[in-house]
Amino acid sequence: MYRCTLRGSCATIKNCHRMGIGAGLGGAQTVIDLHTHVLPKIDDGSDSVETSAGMLHRMAQHGVDVVCATPHFYRDRTDVETFLSRRDAAWQRLQQAQPLPVPLVLGAEVTYYSGISEEKNLHQLCLEGTNTLLLEMPYSDWNSFQIDEVMSLAWDCGFDVVLVHPERLTMGANNKRYLHMLYSLPMQVNAGALRQWRTRRGALEILQNTAKPLLGSDCHNLKSRAPNLWEGRSVVERKLGREFLSDMDQNAQMLLQPRFESV
């Protein structure tokens, strides 16, 4: 049994309301990059304000309408309060440097840890103004306790749990078996996995089996892990069809809708 800590809407909604994101979403073909490491000098992503600005401009040039800034959160390295302070400072540096070409929604890529459902401030790591929690499962072998706790986050605690890049975490038979138990959750595949023939088949299989398929770039810089959402979208449209791609866009839009839940 897990003690659920989610109360009301998730975090503040300053970015969502200030930039018209959230309730205003819903138009056709709103392209959202749900997973990026675009904030400067907060994790292994962008190393400068200049790099961040370059990443955002490249995304805007290729038709991305909204970018979710989701730096890594590791509970064994920091607490929620310290993380939020560092994230807000990075956001302020970027915002003050120059006008942003696309709206940003702040969030986090939260690495799973035992007891995550007991974290009283976990809701502050959601995409702002929502109950959407981007969760990275372990790279090591999963176990039934972890699966139960992840499902409890969704079923008992009310989070919209999105499993990020599961194609990177399920190379072995053990994790592939457990992944089938999680297909009721939204899953976000990296665009890069669709570009490479060695990983494309597995990535497409996940998109076809999850209840809510999603795509993200997981971009970190302008070189080795550059923004590439549009390339993944091209593969999805070619292999799974334009209607499937449109459904993915709608899934992403729904995850940015404001959520207000009674206690």
How large a portion of the residues is in β-strands, by DSSP E?
Answer: 5-15%
CATH architecture: Alpha-Beta Barrel
| Coarse structural class | alpha/beta
The CATH class designation is Alpha Beta
* Sequence of secondary-structure elements: HEHEEHEEEHEHEHHEHH
Radius of gyration, CA atoms, in whole angstroms: 17 Å
Here the CATH topology equals TIM Barrel
Overall number of domains: 1
- Low-pLDDT residue intervals, each spanning 5 or more residues: 1-27
Question: What's the helix count?
Answer: 9
CATH homology-level superfamily:
Metal-dependent hydrolases
Strand order across the biggest sheet? Answer: 3-5-6-7-8-9
What is the mean pLDDT?
A: 90
Relative helix content: 25-40%
Largest sheet, in brief, is: 6 strands, parallel
Alpha carbon gap, first and last residue: 19 Å
What is the tally of beta strands?
Answer: 9
Topology of this structure?
Blueprint: H1 14-18, E1 32-36, H2 49-61, E2 66-69, E3 72-73, H3 80-97, E4 104-106, E5 109-111, E6 132-136, H4 144-155, E7 160-164, H5 173-180, E8 186-190, H6 191-195, H7 197-209, E9 212-216, H8 229-240, H9 242-255
Parallel strand pairs: 1-2, 2-4, 3-5, 5-6, 6-7, 7-8, 8-9
Helix pairs in contact: 8-9
